[in-house]
Design a protein that fits this description.
By secondary structure, this protein is of the alpha/beta class. It contains five helices and 14 strands.
């Protein structure tokens, strides 16, 4: 784990990259920040997390780091030990964690509940959606420390690296570490409600677009040519043929939230 800092004093803000070794976009963003060495109004901690996985260009060595929190210093796995170390390093820091995906090219945020800071910061980022992890938060970084995750774009793409840089600077501006203003956006909010199981097969297909409503009875994917159809309407999130080994991704419901006031008006699929 590599730890660096911008500014002087004890940081209460942190930026994390490289939680997964096959997602280098955030590492590029941190490297650009360190090269630019901007003057900051608040000190910022910068962390490249799973260096060994990044060096090997694999997602993880023993287990998914973003399912290993809070971790254990005496864990049998590399990521179990690293999770405990990273959580300790981030204690009392509002954390911005960058990822990339095989499912969706446009940036979006993932949060563990729509708390005050999520409602304040997320609409000020250049994102197209906010996703509440709902019942699927277990083991993720934001269960250990207050965290806003962002999916910056497609894994390994130059666009994801550029998005990571823009997103990081927007976050640091939104929290008052960098000078300037951010544009507040009216972005849709989704809450994960179910996993879309794959089952064992040789070939997988996906027929739908993420964040686009799937109607009941509509085929959304196939495993070895056998179609999977929706039992009820949902919005696909992080859905791809091969992004996960055991699921296509997640089913979500669109939630009506007044982000200015933070009032959840409903939690139902919107037509």
């Amino acid at each position: 784990m590599k730890v660096a800092k911008l500014g002087s004093g004890h940081p209460e803000i942190a930026v994390v990259a490289g939680v997964h070794g096959d997602e280098p976009c955030g590492v590029r963003a941190i490297e650009r920040l360190l090269d630019d060495d901007p003057a900051v109004s608040r000190p910022v901690k910068l962390i490249v997390a799973n260096e060994e996985a990044l060096e090997r260009r694999v997602r993880f060595l023993d287990e998914d780091l973003n399912r290993a929190f809070p971790g254990d210093p005496d864990a049998d796995t590399h990521e179990g030990r690293l999770a405990a170390e990273l959580a300790a390093e981030l204690e009392n820091c509002l954390t911005f964690s960058m990822h990339s995906t095989q499912s969706h090219a446009e940036p979006f945020a993932i949060v563990n509940g729509l708390g005050d800071r999520a409602r304040e910061i997320c609409p000020r980022l250049p994102i197209t959606a906010i996703v509440d992890s709902g019942p699927f938060a277990a083991g993720r970084l934001f269960t250990a420390v207050e965290t806003i995750e962002v999916e910056c774009g497609l894994q390994g793409s130059e666009t994801a690296a550029e998005n990571a840089d823009r997103l990081t600077r927007a976050f640091l501006t939104a929290v008052g570490a960098l000078p300037g203003d951010t544009v507040r956006r009216d972005v849709p909010v989704f809450r994960l409600v179910d996993r879309l199981s794959k089952g064992h097969a040789e070939n997988y297909e996906v027929f739908v677009e993420n964040f686009t409503r799937v109607d009941a009875g509509e085929a959304f994917a196939a495993a070895d040519g056998e179609a999977r159809t929706a039992e009820e309407p949902f919005y696909p999130v992080l859905v791809s043929p091969y992004g996960y080994s055991d699921v296509f991704g997640y089913a979500a419901r669109r939630v009506e939230v007044d982000l200015a006031e933070g009032t959840a008006e409903s939690a139902t699929v919107r037509d």
